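[audit] Reproducing an earlier prediction to check determinism. Same input, same settings, fresh worker. If the tokens differ from the archived copy the diff job will pick it up downstream; this log only records the rerun itself.
[audit] input (250 residues):
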Amino acid sequence: MEYRSIRPRPAPAKKTDVRRNHSGCSALALAFVAGSAAGQEVKEPEVAWSADLGVSSRYLFSGLEFSSGSVTQAGLTMTYGGLSVSGFTNYDVRTNELNEADLSANYHAQISEKVGMYVGAALYHFQNLKQHGKWDPTTELFFGLSTSYPGNPSIHYARDYELTAGGQLLQLSLSQDVGLGPIRVTSAGTISYNDNYYRAGSDVSHYDLSLASRVELGNVTMTPAIVYQNAIADDFSNHWVGALNFNTTF
């Protein structure tokens, strides 16, 4: 999944042994994937399934607070070649309510040895949100580029077509992946430009810094992570987020 404590942007299907994190547990999983996906060719079965279960101290949707406190997140992904289809749910522990259920699909391809691209669509269904109550389902289209150049620069663009009537999000990221024996450590930074995307306003909204380690436990990958979000726009807030995710493939 992508660590979604910061709104995970949908991650591209990749040809690596690590799947993307779609959850604020999710935003960070994406940083993991963006840093390591481009330029790697690892043999996979034609059809692969991946399941995630994670907990996070807070859920931030593209920097906006979408939980009353800690959350539990679950996801399931089917991958076939460069195509992946994912489902995601977010459960607010404090309010004891399921407040989000999503379905997304995307296609990933290598443009060159060091550059990959992805394009896809997501259907978001929000309900029981602390700040907003229940929203009608909304559709989003997105695309992005990931590279394996120094710093692993990547770019992600998303546009909502219903709920925010054309709201747009642009994110630029850098990440560095280091192997320490059986443990992999990834540091990442992302800055976001929010143009009326789930809020009224158009400006550079916030940036976040993250640190995560990945530990292989047999067929299960455990990923603890910590994220710091620094607000730039007045309607955003500073946050520290801790998350722990478990992933398995079958």
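[audit] rerun output stored. Observation attached for the diff report: DSSP finds one helix and 16 strands in the chain.
[audit] end
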